[in-house]
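#lab-general

N.A. 3:47 PM
ok so I finally got the sequence cleaned up, no stray characters, all 541 residues accounted for. can someone with queue access submit it? mine expired

B.Y. 3:52 PM
send it over

N.A. 3:53 PM
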Amino acid sequence: MASVDRTPPATPHVMLSGCPDELPYAAPQLVTAAAHANDVAWYEIQRQNPATGAWTTVHSGPRSSACDTGQPADGGKVTYRGRARDAAGNWSAYAPATTLTTWDLTPPPPVTGLRVVHRAGIPHLTWSPVAGAASYRVLQYDPATGAHVNALRTGDTTTATDVLPLQAAAVADSYRYAVRSVDAQGNAAAPVETTLSMADRAEAVPPYRTTASRFDEGVVIEWSGVDPWTFDEDLLPTYRIVRTDTATGETGTVDGCKPLTSNDQPLTGPDMRLTWADSTVPSYAGRKMIDGRCWDVRGKSKTTYEYRVVTVDRYGHASRPGPAATATTPDTERPAPVPDLAAERIPLGVRLTWNPPADDDVQGYLVWQGVVDPATGETSWERNCWTTDWTKTEILCPTVPDGREHVYRVAAADRYDTDYRIEEHHPAEIAVTLPDTRPPGWTGTEVRDAHYPSLYVGCPGASSVPCSATRYRVERWDADAGAYTTLTTGDVGSGPTSYVDAEVHEDLLSLQYYRVVFTDASGAERSVRSTAYGIWASWLF
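B.Y. 4:20 PM
back already:
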């Protein structure tokens, strides 16, 4: 008869193992010597209640280890004991009670109170501190990839509970951010998410840099701004430039910017361009920034202004004014009208004289002569007077004395400009009635200047001179005789093509009327060229 097995297995001892898939629970294990392992068919593990000392079975089965889901692996202490049973039903003695320190695999609680707070238009994420959290992860959801990316500006975690998040996704109306609390062992809680809606903020982000400097006729204001949540290459904000007179406190808005070109163009909005962010950008910047520029030419003359720039985003939110920049406008007031304007009749027209105005910035003088269009009767103002030095206070204005009133305007100028406009100045005006000294039938209004008048006698020439002419005759009007005097004659095309009158050069400032009469072989007059010369040359004065 076979004997009955009444020998229990050897007493195992308690160790700490690991739960599957790193579940955050304690994992006790009973260890049996290798020599006795084959004799064990069943294990029982018990956990002691630290308050009452009572034991509770947490595992009973053929495996020697268990995942104690009733005991979190939170780095705390827990006491276990256990025993083994063989196939004959013999139980070993309980292993000595063993106190183990669990691994900390338990995340801290999730954050609470997560919300978006805008400060000066800049979004911040804030939440309540979490007990047991050593740091926090801040993430942004990127719809383009479906991934959550780190939204912290430095490092992967932060100890702060108020952060300025990065903007790593494409510009949109709203963004999703999440925060996870993390304990000292790196256990992260479930993420808590919030939505950042740009339409909900009360104000835009102001520029962070402003400069102003006088340039030519105005002040150039330049600024830089960043707001990665609301602008990109296709979506740019607008700007309002606030201008304040530092002496009076009067404040207004720059209502237009002059284009920085050599061409005169209408005022427009500020010039803006998107550029890569430089080292001066503030912490909330993304990779791009906006540089803006406006040439203000509407400020008062010689006035010190403080300029501040306001951002207006695409939702209509205006920012607080950006930093101030100060500049003084140039002297944009044209000099006062010249005093003592007088006109002296001379044979070739008039000589104008005047005195300088009291302004201390006069650089020269501009003179216009009113020219009446005989067809419309309208007056146009032409700068056709003669001078050798535009800074002098006298000038000759060639005018055919025709018995009518002629009007002249003189203005002091404070700078040289190739495109003078009479309406931009303060001209003094004078009218003079000239006697009619024209030869009978004279209709020309142009006076040419020359020391030695030259008459063209060639053919072909002007359309009024047919090449069928065979002879020419050069004549000069003799006012005393009341008739033309012949100076020379000749065959057309067989000799010189011009004739120079060398007899009148000493009669300075006189007005000489010439005509060239062309005749055909029969002696019949074919056409006439008429030219008036004022005897004057710039190199003589």
